[in-house]
Amino acid sequence: MERRKEKAAPGGGGQLENFRPCSSASTPHIATSTTASAVTIVIGGEPVAKGRPRATRRGFVYTPAKTRKYEAHGRLAAQIAMTGRVPIAVPVRAEVMIDLVPPASWSNKRRDAALRGDIRPTTRPDADNYVKAALDAVNAIVVTDDSLVVDLVATKRYAAVPQLTIVITPLPALAARGRAA
């Protein structure tokens, strides 16, 4: 009981008992070694492609609400997958698997063929728009910047459960940090 009293804030607040401000000596370091393991992020639900920026009549540019909500859902999934690890700061390989549900209007025979992989989704939205939304969601959480993605594989396929899976794997290479003057 006496220990609790010692930890309690002088106004009786108690919410900030475990708060420790970071000093320059205790700031978390960014992962720069290639010993970090691959990170798998699964964003459940129907994948949403990155929407085109919209503009109001006054010239204010914004991202559509559906895209913003999906990226927020992806950021949460990325934070859960990282489990407190620091972002990766070396070049990475990103594998994005886009699992879509076959249309309900298809016959059972055609749906089964799609789920086996005999039929692939060639409809809009394009795979690169799904990748843009996925990489924007993991930016600054899994990798320090999405410009570190140097190897990218995207697969759009039919599956029974709709989801978007991202596997980020560090590569044994150094990042070019300098900029041309």
**Name of the CATH first level:** Alpha Beta
Q: Helical region count?
A: 4
Q: How many individual β-strands?
A: 6
- The share of residues in extended strands comes to 15-25%
Rounded mean pLDDT is 83
Tally of individual domains: 1
CATH architecture: 2-Layer Sandwich
Listing every helix as H and every strand as E from the N terminus to the C terminus, the arrangement reads HEEEHEHHEE
Biggest sheet descriptor:
4 strands, mixed
Tell me the radius of gyration. 22 Å
Spell out the CATH superfamily. Holliday junction resolvase RusA
Helical percentage: 10-25%
| Alpha carbon gap, first and last residue | 61 Å
Q: According to CATH, what is the topology? A: 60s Ribosomal Protein L30, Chain: A
What is the strand arrangement across the widest sheet? 1-6-4-5
Unreliably modeled segments: 1-35
What is the 3D form? globular
Descriptive keywords:
181 residues, alpha+beta, 60s Ribosomal Protein L30, Chain: A, 4-stranded mixed beta sheet, two-stranded antiparallel ribbon, 6 strands, 25% helix, 20% strand, globular, disordered N terminus
